[in-house]
Design goal:
- With 234 residues, this protein is an alpha+beta fold.
- The protein contains five helices and 14 strands.
- The strands form four sheets. It has a five-stranded mixed sheet. A four-stranded antiparallel sheet has the order 7-10-8-9.
- A hairpin with a 2-residue loop joins strand 4 and strand 5.
- Helix 1 crosses helix 3.
- The longest helix is centred in the N-terminal third of the chain and has 19 residues.
- The N and C termini lie far apart (43 Å).
């Protein structure tokens, strides 16, 4: 199997841990190659509270997925949730040195990296910086600024924040299980990518994922993420 076509996701839930291996087929669709599940021990309300038990549960799920697929897992993208997650709205801008040069991906990256430097509460770190509408030289409601001209590039952002210690504990569990952590993604965003069409996101939709320990929410309108939240399941 070619490495670049393989994706491995790991969901560390309160009641179960699931590892899933997929491969993009010739039609650009994801073909599931293997799934592994184990009882989640050491996780409460989406947060790791016992490192040793969580490592054991992860290893069980990984082994089952590898056995089903015949693929050796080396790294995973992990879904993150838990009571420590919160989201904020933020607006920021950059002033471009040459307004006669078209806006490119590097300008968007510069603006996003600037937001990543925001000062958070003690012990918190930024997980996602998600651009919403852009504004160029005062012209608002721009969804795609790349290729346009302008000196001042602004955007509103949906920023997802989590406790650094909880995030590090997840990373330690992954690495102690013998695999690498290649990325983190907020679970309701991953769920939305899996089950919502672009048409639904344009029309306006709320996705609710009711888990054993947390309930996740993602709201879209006009194709843009408007709100995310992680609450405790009752």
């Amino acid at each position: 199997m070619e490495k670049e076509n393989i994706a491995v996701g790991l969901d560390i839930g309160t009641t179960k841990i699931v590892a899933m291996i997929g491969k993009k087929n010739e039609y650009g669709k994801l073909e599931i190659l293997g799934v592994g599940k184990s009882k989640s021990l050491g996780v409460a309300r989406g947060v790791v509270n016992n490192i040793t038990q969580t490592i054991h549960s992860i290893q069980q799920a990984i082994l089952e997925a590898e056995t089903n697929s015949g693929y050796k897992i080396k790294d995973v993208v992990v879904g993150i949730a838990g009571q420590h997650i919160r989201s904020i709205q933020h607006s920021d801008y950059i002033s471009r040195s040459n307004a006669e040069e078209v806006i490119g991906g590097k300008d968007i990256d510069l603006l996003i990296n600037q937001v990543h430097k925001l000062a958070m509460l003690p012990g918190e770190e930024i997980i996602h910086v998600l651009p919403q509408e852009f504004k160029i030289d005062g012209q608002s409601d721009i969804k795609e600024p790349i290729g346009m001209y302008g000196g001042r590039l602004e955007s509103s952002f949906h920023v997802v924040v989590g406790q650094a210690s909880s995030i590090r504990n997840v990373g330690r569990c992954i690495q102690s299980s013998g695999i690498e952590l290649s990325g983190l993604t907020l679970e309701p965003l991953a769920s939305a990518d899996a089950v919502l069409s672009q048409e639904e996101k344009e029309a306006g939709v709320a996705l609710i994922d009711i888990g054993g320990g947390t309930t996740d929410l993602a709201i879209f309108k006009d194709g843009i993420i408007r709100h995310t939240a992680v609450g405790l399941a009752r």
